[in-house]
Amino acid sequence: MNGRPISGASVGARTRRGKGALALALGTLMLVVTACGGGGDSDSGSGSGKGGDKDSGQADTKVSQAVVTVAPKDGADGVKTSGALKVTAAKGKLTEVEVEDTKGNPVEGKITDGGTTWTPATHLAASTKYKVHAVAKDSEGREAAEESAFTTLTPKNTFVGIFTPEDGSKVGVGMSFSVNFTRGITHPEDVEKAIDIKTEPAVDVEGHWFGNDRLDFRPEKYWKPGTKVTVKLNLDGVEGRPGVYGEQAKTVKFTIGRSQVSTVDVKTKKMTVKRDGKVIKTIPVTTGKPGYETWNGQMVITERLRVTRMNGETVGYGGEYDIKDVPDAMRLTTSGTFIHGNYWGGDAFGNYNASHGCIGLRDQRGGGDRGAPAAWFFDRSIVGDVVVVKNSNDRVVAPDNGLNGWNMSWEKWKA
């Protein structure tokens, strides 16, 4: 689209007519004076008139040589949310580009290529009308402007991200921000770019993909207590895979609470609970018996159940156990590892390992005794707290088995 000049040519036309009339009047007067006086240069009057007319035309009639072009064209519909919007300038440089939707939300962008190109910094939302206003100047400083409006496509196939933790929650220092997508993602860089995380105080937070449908974010080390985290899921309009677009625009905020890291020593059968670096309690435990050893490694509490039922069939152990009214249970892995109250273990706590891989603490059936070790621990734990298991004969828990990415080095996490 050709740029429209800011100054109008009609003003210059009126100016020329005015000056032409004045020059004609002066010329007539000078002819009269010459006839009476009998002398003077006959070319001086006409030369003065021509000079004034020429100067006026240069000052007022030249339009800007700059040409502003907006793609997509004005009135376009079904526009792609990425790669379609571009503003360029020929014979000049862009000085101003404003893009916003009908609600006044701006689209950030950057002028590049020596002032000749503007592109958006991110994708556009789907099913949204945008307005563009752009201005460029030529080498003489004269402005040309262009305006345009278009509407983005309405996708037939969409995806969303199911995330944890919840908005407004207070969590432990081991909590990762985890997003599980409802469709497999084949454009991971575009999706990850659409998730913005800011922290107070500031800390470097990096994302890591587990497969093509899960993306976790964490800092290098456990969060500092009191950190405030704000996550913007700007997924609306992101093409996660060919023809499949995000439909989610949401801000999630959560706060890191006090630090609680508990260490289970399988050999000593004891758990040491540390709050803000200080030991507050040591609790006798029982862990996985031979053949059912508990995972080693750093595990994060992701779910808290005041009372539940544990059935071996749900974790691949057939009919080996089916226990009702299990109290004070907290999930550590997706595969079924819990730290929980145990009312059937007899004298196992602190003496021998008797479980199918879980960490058991003495408790009352249904958790009625809030002074029991498991109840005490449950009441002082929150989602995101860390439980570390050491000296087990089993391997280290997989980083994607729960929110246990802390078992991966920072270098591998970023890679």
From TrEMBL:
Pfam family, one: Big_10
Comp. bias regions, Gly residues: 40-50
Pathway, per record: Cell wall biogenesis; peptidoglycan biosynthesis; Glycan biosynthesis
Region (Disordered): 40-62
UniProt entry keywords in alphabetical sequence: Acyltransferase, Cell membrane, Cell shape, Cell wall biogenesis/degradation, Lipoprotein, Membrane, Palmitate, Peptidoglycan synthesis, Signal, Transferase
GO molecular function: acyltransferase activity; peptidoglycan L,D-transpeptidase activity
PROSITE patterns recorded: LD_TPASE
InterPro entries: Big_10, LD-transpeptidase, LD_TPept_cat_dom, Transpep_catalytic_dom
One cellular component (GO) term of this entry: extracellular region
UniProt name for this protein: L,D-transpeptidase family protein
Superkingdom as given in the UniProt entry: Bacteria
Biological process, per Gene Ontology: cell wall organization; peptidoglycan-protein cross-linking; regulation of cell shape
Active-site residues annotated for this sequence: 340, 358
Every L,D-TPase catalytic domain range: 260-390
Keyword Transmembrane: no
